[in-house]
Amino acid sequence: MENLFENQDIININIEDSIKASYLDYSMSVIIGRALPDAKDGLKPVHRRILYAMHDLNMSARAPYKKSARIVGDVIGKYHPHGDSSVYDALVRMAQNFSMRAPLVDGQGNFGSIDGDNAAAMRYTEARMTRISEDVLRDIDKDTVNFVPNYDDTLKEPDILPTRVPTLLLNGSEGIAVGMATKIPPHNLGELIDAVLHMVDNPTATADELMEFIQGPDFPTGGTIFGRRGIIDAYNTGRGRVKIRAKHHIETKGKKEIIVLDELPYQVNKSRLIEQIANLAKDKQIEGISEVRDESDREGIRVVIELKKDAMGEIVLNNLYKSTPMETTFGIILLAVYNKEPKVFNLPDLLNVFVSHRKTVIIRRTIFDLEKAKARAHILEGLKIAVDNIDEVVKIIRSSENDADARAKLEERFSLSQIQSQAILDMRLGRLTGLQRDKLEAEYQELLTLIAELEAILKSEEKLNDIIKEELVEIKDKYADERRTEIEDSYDEIDIEDLIPNEPMVVTITHNGYVKRVPIKSYEKQRRGGKGKVAVTTHDDDFIEKFFVSNTHDTLMFITNMGQLYWLKVYRIPEGSRTAKGKAVVNLINLRPDEKIMAILPTTDFDEQKSLAFFTKNGVVKRTALNEFSNIRSNGVRAIVLDDDDEIVTAQITLPESKYFMIFTALGQVIRFYIWEKKVDEEGNPVLDKDGKEQYLGVKPQGRTTRGVRGIKFKSKGDYVVDADVIENEQQELLTVSEKGVGKRTEVEAYRLTNRAGSGVASMKLSNKTGKTVVGNVIVDEDQDLMALTSIGKMIRVDMQSIRKAGRNTSGVTIVNVDKNDKVVSIAKCPKEEDDELDIENADTMDGIDLHEFNLLDTPSEENNNEEKGNE
User: Fold this and answer.
1) Distance CA 325, CA 451 (A)
2) Which of 155, 476, 530, 718 could form a disulfide with 193 if both were Cys (CB 3.0 to 4.6 A apart)?
3) CATH number of the domain bearing residue 70
4) pLDDT value of residue 265
C-alpha cells in the first residue's frame, strides 16, 4: 500500500480555491449559456436554438404547422441539453402576443392567456415561425455568423443570429443569472428603427437625441407610463424605474359612475387583479365599489368596476392605483452579453451594438455573394471558351481515353482550371444553340456587374450604411405598427415653472374636493350690483367652499389628518373653463389611502415672519416657522408628531398682525389666548425659563418633527376639538353652529382672554334644542353665505346677514332646519350669489385666507351617525 502512489503525481488543492473555481464556472455557464440575452441578436440561447431548429425543419410562416412536441424534441435532441419543459415554456412565451411585442412563433391551439391560464401540453399545440422570425434568420446560410459545435460535438449551431430586427429592445428580455439580472422592456419597432437610422448617420448620438425618436417602452398590453424620469435614467445609465398604470375610461349608469379598464400594466394577471379588487372592496379597505366583473372578449380587455351612488370615481381610482397592480413599477436593467461578457448598456451603446452587428453581417454576406459570383464567372469564362472553340473541344473529348484524360488535355490546350474543364465536360449539348450562347453571355455580363457592385460595397462605408438603412426601412414598412403604451408627464419630475407665465388665476375648491384654476380675464369686470358669472357646475351634493385669486407660481399647502404636509404649485392645478367641474385633489397629490385632507393653505412665499399653526383633536397646538416648509418634496413631509389616538383637525397660517388663537370643542368650550406674546416682568423685560430661553404666553415656535404643546384642557371626558381660528382683532365676529342647526354670531371680545392650556369659557349653551355637540364655527363675512351639510346629505344655504348676534353663553337661534333624525355635520362659507357665482373684485387674496373648513375627505365618524353623501 505504501508504494501505491509512488509513481503518481499528487497535487495538493485548497478546497476553498476548488469550490471558488467551480462556482465561477457554474455562474459563467448560467450567465452566458442560459439566463441572459446577447446584445447583438437579443436572444437567449434557448430562443436562438428554437428558431434555428424551426429553420432546420423548414417551418417558415408559409409552411404547415407542426406539433410543438416535434420542435421541442429537435431542440433538446440537437442543441439544448436541458429539460423539455423549459424549452416548451420558452416556445409558448414566444407565441404570446401579451408577452412579446412582436411574437416570434405563430402558435395554433391553447398557448395560455392574460388570466394566467397555462398553455396546453405540447402534444396538443402546433407552431411555426412568424414572418418577422424569417427576417431574424435571413442570410444565415450565407456565412454571416459563426457556427459552433453543439453540446455533443455532432452538429453545428449558430453562435448568434444575423437578425435584421433590433430584437433585444423590440421584445425585451428578463432573466436572473448568478449575481446579476436583466430586465429590458419591449419597445415600438417603428420608433426603434427611426432611432437606428439616426444612429447609422450619427454614431455619437446621445440618449437625449435618440429620445426624439424613441418615446419610451411600448408594452404589448398597452397601459400608461406615468412619468418620464425613469425612462431618461434607463436610457442614459442603463437603470431606471417606470410606473405603469392601467388605462381606463369612466361611464355612467344612472347616477352611478362605472370605471372600465381597457388595458392593464405589462405582466399583470387579469383574473388575480379582479379577485384582489373584489377582496379589497369586500373587506372595506377600498370604499365605494359595489361590483367588479370581467366583460373581456376576443375584441379586448374590459374590466368593469361599478361604484356606489355616493362614490367618486377618481378617488376610488386613486386608491386602486395605490393598493392593487393597476399601477406597477417596472425596474429597467439594460444588461446583456457582449462578446461573452455581461455588461450594462445605455441606449446609444445598445443601438451601436446592433448597427455594428448589421455591418458585420452585411460584410460577411457580401463576401459570400462575391466569392460565389466570382466562382460562377470563372466557370462561365471556361464555358465561353468551349463554346467559341466547340469543334476543337469535341475533337479533344472524342480522342481522350477517359474523363481525366479529356480534362487534362482541355486544361493544357486552353489554359483552363480544373473547375472550368470539369464544367465543360458536364455541359449539355443544348447549351450550344445560338439562344443558349446569348444567355451565357448575358449571365456573364450580369455577374461582372454584380461583382463590381459587391466590391464597391466592401470598399465604401457609405454604401454599407445605405444598405443597412434600406433593409431597416423595409423591416419598418413590413412590421411596424402604432404605439400601444401612452406616456404621461408627471409634474413631480418636471420643473416647468420657468416655462409658465406668472399670471393671476382664480382658484376654486369645492366641498367634495374638486379643484381647478381659471384665468382671471375670464371674469370681466362688472359694475357694483352686477350678478357675476357662474364659476363652476357642481353636483347637487357639492358647492364651492372657497375661492381666491393667486398667481400661477404660488403654492398651495395640503395638511392631512395624519400630520403630513404636501405642496402643489397653482400651475399644476388643471386649468378649466368657468363652468368646468375641475379635478379631484386626491389625484394631484400623493396621498395614502387612509389620509384625509383637513386644510388647504395658499401662500405666495415662505417668509420666516409667518408661521404655520396646527390644531389636533386632543387639544394640542403647535406653531412652526413657515420657512421650514420651503423645501418642496413630491411625497410630502412630516409636519407634526401625533400621539397614537390623535389627529389633525385644522391648520392655519399666522401673519405678523395675527393676534389670538381660538380653539373650539365639541362640548361647547372655547379658549382664546395670545399667539406671539411673551411673558414680561413689571419692568417689561422678558421672563426666562431655567434654560435661559424666553417664556411665551402664547405658543413658542417649534421644529417640524415635534409634538406641540397643550392648547386647551378639556372639562368633560370624551370632549374633543372641532375647530380653531386665527384672530386679528377683537371686533371680528364668530358664527358657532350646533348639530341641530342652532347658531349665533358673537364678537371675539366676548370670549375672555386666558392663558394657553386653560379650560377657557363656554362657547355655546348646549341643550336638547341645540343638540349634544358643537359642529364648528366660521369667521363672519356678510358678503358670503353659510353652507351647512347634514348627515343625510342635505345642503342648506343661509345668508349670514340673517343671523342675529347673541351673547357668549347663549344657545342662539335655529338657523338650519333639520329633520328629527337628521343633524348638521359640517359647516363652511361659500360665495353669496346663487349658483356659485363669484365676485372676483372682492375675492380673497393669498395670505391670511381662512381655509380651515376644508375637510374635503373627512367622512364623519359612525358615532355621529353621519352618512354624508358624496363626501369622501
Assistant:
1) 59
2) 476
3) 3.90.199.10
4) 95
In terms of Cα–Cα distance, which of 51, 238, 29 is closest to 145?
51
Q: Mark whether 371 and 317 lie in a shared domain.
A: no
pLDDT in tens, 697-724: 788 889 988 999 999 999 999 999 999 9
Task: Name, in order, each residue with C-beta under 8 angstroms of 259's C-beta and a sequence gap of 6 or more.
Answer: 248, 250, 304, 305, 307, 313, 316, 317, 320
Same-domain status, 147 and 252: no
Contact 845, 605 (CB under 8 A): no
Structure confidence at residue 6 as a pLDDT band (50, 70, 90)? low
Residues 405 and 512 in one domain: no
pLDDT at residue 466 tops 70? yes
β 224-226/486-488 pair status: parallel
Domain boundary at 419, 448, 479, which?
479
Residues annotated as part of the active site? 124
Q: Is 508 exposed, middle or buried (0-12, 13-18, 19+ CB in 10 A)?
A: buried
Report the range of poorest mean pLDDT among 191-205, 544-558, 761-775, 852-866: 852-866
Q: What CATH number is given to the structural domain containing 719?
A: 2.120.10.90
Q: How far is it, in rounded angstroms, from Cα 797 to Cα 538?
A: 15
Neighbours of 20 (CB within 10 A): 11
This prediction's pTM: 0.66
Where in the sequence is the domain holding 259, given as residue range(s)?
Answer: 247-325
Q: 192, 209, 230: which is the final residue of a domain?
A: 192
Q: Are the CB atoms for 471 and 164 separated by under 8 Å?
A: yes
Evaluate whether residue 180 is within a structural domain.
yes
**Is pLDDT of 388 > 70?**
yes
Q: Judge whether 292 lies within some domain.
A: yes
Q: Where does the pLDDT of residue 554 fall: very low under 50, low under 70, confident under 90, or very high at 90 and above?
A: confident
Dihedral (Cα; 856, 857, 863, 868), 10-degree rounding: 70
**Which residues are CB-contacts of 314 (< 8 A; sequence separation ≥ 6)?**
583, 584, 586, 587
